[in-house]
Amino acid sequence: MIAAEDRLSAEDIIKAEIITKLEIPFFSSYVQAGFPSPAENWLEKVCDLNDLCIDTPEATYFVRVISDSMIGDRIDAGDILVVDSSKVPADGKIVVVWLNGDHAVKRIKYAGKMVVLHSSNPKYLPIYVHPEQDDFKILGVVTNVIFKPM
């Protein structure tokens, strides 16, 4: 059972549609986290965020996170997940799932026929899923996280 505070809202799941391309300058120089670098800013190319974040547009959607269950993976409430439903949900990947009437984001582990959904916040217990008994579906693999501004 997914805890009430850990559920994803259906209103926060949005289909990714690439209508236009917005080319943004992409500089080849790195950004220092400490003291400024005297290195010259050199425009390497332009990039489009769609090209950077979306591999399969027809299978990609966005989800806004509403809980703190994945804070150990630096995913906080208010962040937006880029989710690709065409990706294979390999062991250890972060996925969006449907479980017994609720959406959630978790790290998936396989244990034989059973699936274990792990939060990265220690205050949440693992969820044990029996695919033949539970109403369970993996809706996609998280490919990117767009962090909310602090």
Automatic annotation (TrEMBL):
Pfam assignment, any one: Peptidase_S24
Residue span(s) of domain Peptidase S24/S26A/S26B/S26C: 25-142
Domain of life: Bacteria
NCBIfam families linked to this entry: PRK10276.1
Protein name, UniProt field: Peptidase S24/S26A/S26B/S26C domain-containing protein
